[in-house]
Specification:
Strand order of the largest sheet: 1-2
Distance between the termini: 57 Å
Structural class: mainly alpha
Largest sheet: 2 strands, antiparallel
Number of helices: 19
Radius of gyration: 30 Å
Strand content: under 5%
Order of helices and strands: HHHHHHEEHEHEHHEHHEHHHHHHH
Bound molecules: arginine
Helix content: 55-70%
Number of strands: 6
């Protein structure tokens, strides 16, 4: 005889094809701990409120605990015919404790149950991702601290633009991941609402205590509208957005690493332990982890898009389409955590070629703006100064020399106001030093930024 709860209404068994098509237990079994926690809180409350006998409530709780142990130990058999994690656990409970188990679903629907489980899952994953981000932030900060003083060309349009400190460049990524860290905390704040008690859609006729179950399950608020509670997946969309944006940030960092490790750039040497070779070309060492992280951004963006599209045409309230909300979330959580971990390891093991970075900065006319700024201090209007320096650069390119190779006399032919101290203005070190503005690349400013980042890490993450 069928174990399905709706057997009373049905005269025919579900076909195998339908069973396979509609089941979700193959993936939503991942929610089992949250499902059991939710059920335990619900059962206790039912007992305390006298909705079911205390004795039954105790039997249910004990039964659920032993099912939890079975699942943890890998001995519970999941049954596709029972569709999802919720019905599998409930059915095992009935097998285990008999009639008391039949009372668990009083004053509850799978609709508020799944909304609850999913919130708890995303809450936990967001916390975990926050911790992993803490480790990534730590590894970026350590690398920035370790290379304090190293200069490199900063780029715009992929053209060498102005000298910056390597630490400043790395700290730019620190800022992105710090915001991602905050975004996951925000996801947790926003989802901190218990939907339990919404029932199927309209609430319940039983005198339940919504505040109590919310409190037991670590929620500080309860949903205000039962219809919204069972159909809302904003929290999942916000999680997927936070994950997609974080993956995009990782992808940008990955792209830099791919570029920097090319022979053309040769700014970094990647650790062998994170690379692979070519099956054909013996000289190759490929930056695979960075390429994969970059590639996986496509999945993270796809997962966000997928959920938004699922939601966009759904009438209130619960629709089975919503079962499709889980896999994108599971996938983004897994993809992102693996990507953060790999980038954390990669950053901490990558070697930067200080000389090569310095040379690239000197070679690229990166202090041309400093020369224009110098002329401005000699009363040349900026637009005019810009034009003069542009001509100097063009001539140097023709002569295949650097600006600093021009003699003072040669320089004065472009502009009389130039003096001997121009050579200092053209030096990479002084260029960096003079960007002494809040948020700028001057060593003092970067040092302050790193100190502030250290305090942030100490206060906001578990990383050490
Ligand atoms: N497996 C379902 C889901 O993930 C659980 C809720 C089912 N509710 C229902 N009314 N069929 O959405």
């Amino acid at each position: 005889m069928s174990k399905k709860p709706w057997k009373g209404r049905f005269q025919e068994e579900t076909t195998d094809l339908m069973e396979r098509f509609s089941e979700s237990v193959s993936f939503d079994q991942r929610l089992y701990r949250h499902d059991i926690d939710g059920s335990i809180a619900h059962a206790r409350m039912l007992g305390e409120r006298g909705i079911i006998p205390e004795e039954n409530s105790r039997e249910i709780v004990e039964g659920l605990k032993s099912i939890l142990a079975q699942i943890d130990g890998g001995t519970l058999k999941w049954d596709q015919a029972l569709e999802d994690v919720h019905m599998n656990i409930e059915s095992s409970l009935v097998d285990l404790v008999g009639d008391a188990g039949l009372k668990l679903h009083t004053a509850r629907s799978r609709n508020d149950q799944v909304a609850l489980d999913f919130r708890m899952f995303i809450r936990e994953e967001s916390g975990r991702l926050g911790d992993l981000l803490g480790a990534l932030l730590e590894s970026l900060l350590r690398t920035a601290e370790g290379h304090f003083g190293t200069v490199m060309p900063g780029y715009t349009h992929m053209q060498r633009a102005q000298p910056v400190l390597l630490s400043h460049h790395l700290m730019a990524f620190f800022e992105m991941f710090r915001r991602d860290h905050g975004r996951f905390a925000q996801v947790v704040d926003n989802l901190d609402v218990s939907p339990l008690g919404a029932g199927a859609l309209a609430g319940t006729t039983f005198p339940i205590d919504r505040e109590k179950t919310a409190l037991d399950l670590g929620f500080s608020r309860i949903s205000r509208n039962s219809m919204d509670a069972v159909s809302d997946r904003d929290f999942a969309a916000e999680f997927l957005f936070a994950a997609a944006l974080c993956q995009v940030h990782l992808s940008r960092l990955a792209e830099e690493i791919v570029l920097w490790s090319t022979q053309e750039f040769s700014f970094v040497i990647l650790p062998d332990s994170y690379c692979t070779g070519s099956s054909m070309m013996p000289q190759k060492k490929n930056p695979d982890p960075a390429e994969l992280v970059r590639g996986k951004a496509g999945r993270a963006i796809g997962n966000l898009t997928s959920l938004l599209v699922i939601l966009k045409g759904l009438p209130l309230t619960y629709n089975r389409d919503l079962q499709e909300d889980k896999e994108p979330v599971f996938d983004s959580a897994d993809t992102l955590s693996a990507s953060i971990e790999i980038m954390t390891g990669l950053i901490s093991k990558t070697r930067f070629d200080r000389k090569r970075l310095q040379q690239a900065t000197v070679d690229g006319f990166t202090t041309a703006t400093d020369l224009a700024d110098y002329l401005v201090t000699r009363d040349v209007p900026f637009r005019r100064a810009h034009e003069i320096v542009g001509e100097m650069v063009r001539d140097c390119l023709e002569r295949e020399c650097a600006l600093t190779d021009l003699t003072l006399d040669e320089m004065r032919r472009y502009c009389e106001q130039i003096d001997q101290d121009v050579y200092d203005a053209l030096s990479v070190q002084s260029s960096v030093k003079r960007r002494d503005v809040a948020g700028g690349t001057a060593p003092g400013r970067v040092k302050k930024a790193m100190e502030e980042a250290r305090v942030f890490l100490d206060q906001n993450t578990g990383a050490d």
